[in-house]
Amino acid sequence: MLPALHLPAVHTADSLAAIVADWRASGYSVGFVPTMGALHEGHIALVLKALELADRVVVSIFVNPTQFAPNEDLDRYPRTLEADSALLAAAGCHLLYAPEVEEIYPDGFATTIEVAGPALGLESDARPHFFSGVATVVARLLGQVRPDIAVFGEKDYQQLLVVRQIVADLALPVKIIAGETVRETDGLALSSRNRYLAPQERMQAGRLNVILRDLANALEDGEPLGAALAHARTLAGNVFDAVDYVEVRDALTLAALPAGRLDRPARVLAAVRAGSTRLIDNMSAKPG
Ligand code: PAF
Asked: I want to staple 202 with a disulfide (CB 3.0 to 4.6 A). Which of 27, 42, 61, 197 is the partner?
């Protein structure tokens, strides 16, 4: 039997900074993938992308309390540190940063980043607290890791645009790289929350990407946005227990689009519920 691979791990920003400083002194570039753990192949694809672009890669695992509302799943969010560490070691990640809450939000922490622009609407309508929590923790983690590049998944497309916005607005010295969504064989986007799905809900969940793909295809074939969207919303309403949104937005800004034929690169996005599990997905649609 092969010996288990061991991944170095640090839990404080000071230990992290010391290792990153050693890497810098050796002339290595640094890549970073922030996560909340419960890792799956989608996260590993982000790590592999970071490894292609940087000499050394740090992955953080931190279940960020400020991006969960009191009624959300912070307490039951899956925590699988040992399994995560083994997956990261096998992928070739160089360092795990797994801080405690006090390392991210020490006593006296008094800053919250509020983002407008791409943070408005969509996820924010259902989860108004969410992007300020994400923006604040991402800025803090980027400040602690100080990477050259950081990789964020397109699965959370609005989050990716919000992160690009704060990096631009706060002039943070890091390049944000988008990682493609990894899917199951039926197209369901991988997500740490998929493990909550009961078998019947798992079958429901597999329909989301089909509805979005059909919507994107219809738009690319020249169908007017208003009609294509109405059809997709009806389908989603028939399949899922609740539909938070099905939308088509400008791919760069997430601004609303006119109801006619697609005239610019767009993104189709949806959030639905299968049982009590909230699923999000998105894909691109280009004008024909
Ligand atoms: O996408 C996630 O897992 C989280 O929102 C992130 C970016 C790690 C911030 O907590």
From this structure: 197
